[in-house]
Design a protein that fits this description.
Strand 3 and strand 4 form a beta hairpin. The strands form three sheets. Strands 2-1-5-4-3 form a five-stranded antiparallel beta sheet, with helices on both faces. A five-stranded mixed beta sheet has the order 7-9-10-12-11. It folds into three domains: 152 residues, PAS domain (Beta-Lactamase); 86 residues, Orthogonal Bundle (Helix Hairpins), CATH 1.10.287; 148 residues, Heat Shock Protein 90, CATH 3.30.565.10. Helix 1 runs antiparallel to helix 4 and helix 8 packs antiparallel against helix 10. With 462 residues, the protein is α+β, with helices and mostly antiparallel strands. The chain is rod-shaped and about 160 Å long. The chain has ten helices and twelve strands. The protein binds adenosine-5'-triphosphate and magnesium ion. Adenosine-5'-triphosphate binds next to helix 8 and helix 10. The site of magnesium ion (MG) has 5 residues, from helix 8.
Length: 462
């Protein structure tokens, strides 16, 4: 059974081609018919003229008889009359139809070269010509030639039969071609339809023939790519959900354990206080984690508003430093900041503050006592660059490509103790990129890490 699209395409092709064929055939047919009839008429007149030429040479009764006898054997009929249309002789008995033509002719008006008297083969029984016998510029007689219209009809019938045969053959070939064509077009479409159905049913790995160079090939390529993207997204989502549930479960398990201990009769007030403090810390951590997840979700749904403005970046850096300096000092880490007074950027100050705090927080967390953190700012014509470097533990080479991914932590056990959940850099990267900027990292394990943040400066009038 033909599917709908190929039926539609097929029918459309078929109708268009059929119409064109009918028009062309009609023109060809009528031209051929006209040509054939004209040819018969020309022959008839030429034959009559030949007779009249002979008679002009030798206008005697024996020659006239001769003409009649000659035509009695042919498929034509001849009637020879005198100058006023009195029949002298004829090749066949004169039927009324022949008589009528002879009588109704204007005998003097016929030119010397003869004329066609009747060419309406479809209505009249005979087509006819008149060739006058002219001696000394006088019509002394007339040679009337007749051809049976049925002869012409036979010729036309043959022609029609041939046309019918060729026409049917063409229609058949057209149907065949259209059928093949519509299959060539709709087969790959059907396959792609099946593929997309599979996609929506959750079967994400579809195989499509993608080597065609035309639009159908491009469509197949897009669908294949879509299927791969979906597969990747599905995997990422599963991984993410796995990590998230792990992240949430771990602190909850801790808290439940500590609460069980607190509830035991034999727990001292001292221990109780200690465990309550741990529970508080874990709760803060969980709240932070959920807040971060919430921010990332907003970024994903494009609901994360960035309101860029031209700011003096120095002011921002000062508040950030004031914010984090006490914590850094407490850990016994040296902290120096260096930037030019006229440092500017075209950014959302609240968001960039969040980025700087995230990265400084990392530098502090992953750097031991006695080391140092340096923050610098610089600018050129188009961009402002902030670097934050530490002489901390660095990041293992194999982890570097992944540290900006969500929930990714290098050396997980270590970060766990530092309370990280692996979202800080992911958020920082999203924010910087939403600004049209870039964030990169250079690190050597055991020696330290440098984060380089480039931000847009904006046009002078922004
Ligand atoms: N300055 C750094 N020195 C060494 N390792 C770092 C540094 N900054 C980041 N890392 C590594 O990259 C990982 C990802 O950092 P990210 O800030 O995304 O997460 P986190 O600090 O563990 O948790 P969160 O920031 O969500 O509290 C960290 O777990 C850490 O292993
Ligand atoms: Mg962090």
């Amino acid at each position: 059974m033909l599917n709908k699209l190929s039926l539609k395409i097929g029918l459309l092709f078929f109708l268009v081609i059929l119409t064109v064929e009918i028009i062309l055939f009609y023109i060809l047919y009528t031209n051929l018919v006209d040509d054939r009839v004209e040819e018969v008429m020309r022959d008839l007149l030429a034959r009559g003229n030949a007779h009249s030429d002979v008679l002009e040479e030798n206008y005697t009764s024996s020659t006239i008889e001769h003409v009649a006898i000659m035509e009695s054997e042919s498929e034509f009929k001849v009637v020879v009359t005198d100058d006023v249309g009195e029949v002298i002789t004829s090749s066949n008995p004169i039927e009324p139809e022949l008589e009528a033509v002879v009588q109704h002719t204007d005998h003097d008006g016929i030119p010397e070269g003869g004329a066609i008297l009747e060419s309406d083969w479809s209505n009249e029984p005979y087509v006819s010509t008149d060739s006058p016998v002219t001696i000394n510029e006088n019509h002394v007689g007339h040679v009337f030639m007749f051809a049976d219209s049925n002869n012409i009809k036979r010729i036309i019938d043959q022609l029609s039969q041939q046309f019918l045969f060729v026409g049917l053959l063409t229609v058949f070939l057209t149907i065949f071609t259209v059928f093949i064509l519509s299959r060539v077009i709709t087969r790959p479409l059907l396959k792609m339809k099946k593929a997309t159905e599979q996609l929506s049913r959750g079967h994400h790995e579809v195989e499509l023939y993608t080597h065609r160079k035309d639009e159908l090939g491009e469509l197949a390529t897009s669908i294949s790519r879509l299927s791969k993207d979906l597969e990747r997204l599905k995997n990422e989502r599963n991984e993410f959900l796995g990590s998230i549930s792990h992240e949430l479960r771990t602190p909850l398990t801790y808290m439940k354990g500590y609460m069980d201990i607190i509830n035991r009769q034999d727990t001292t007030t001292e221990s109780r206080k200690q465990y309550i403090k741990i529970i508080q810390e874990e709760t803060t951590h969980l709240a932070g984690l959920i807040q971060n997840l919430f921010e990332l979700a907003k970024i994903d749904y494009n609901e994360f508003a960035i309101k860029k403005e031209k700011i003096m970046l120095g002011d921002l850096i000062r508040t950030v430093v004031a914010n984090i300096q006490p914590a850094i000092n407490k850990r016994g880490i040296r902290f120096t900041v260096d930037y030019p007074d006229d440092l500017v950027a075209y950014v959302d100050p609240g968001r960039i503050r969040q980025v700087l705090l995230n990265i400084l927080d990392n530098a502090m967390k992953y750097t031991n006592e006695g080391n140092s953190i340096v923050m610098t700012g610089s600018q050129d014509k188009d961009e402002t660059v902030i670097t934050i470097s530490d002489t901390g533990e660095g990041i293992p080479e194999e982890d570097v490509p992944y540290i900006f991914e969500r929930l990714y932590r290098a050396e997980k056990s270590r970060s766990r103790s530092s309370g990280g959940s692996g979202l800080g850099l992911a958020i920082a990267k999203e924010i910087v990129e939403l600004h049209g900027g870039d964030i990169t990292v250079e690190t050597t394990q055991g020696e330290g890490t440098v984060f380089i943040i480039s931000l847009p400066k904006g046009d002078a009038n922004e």
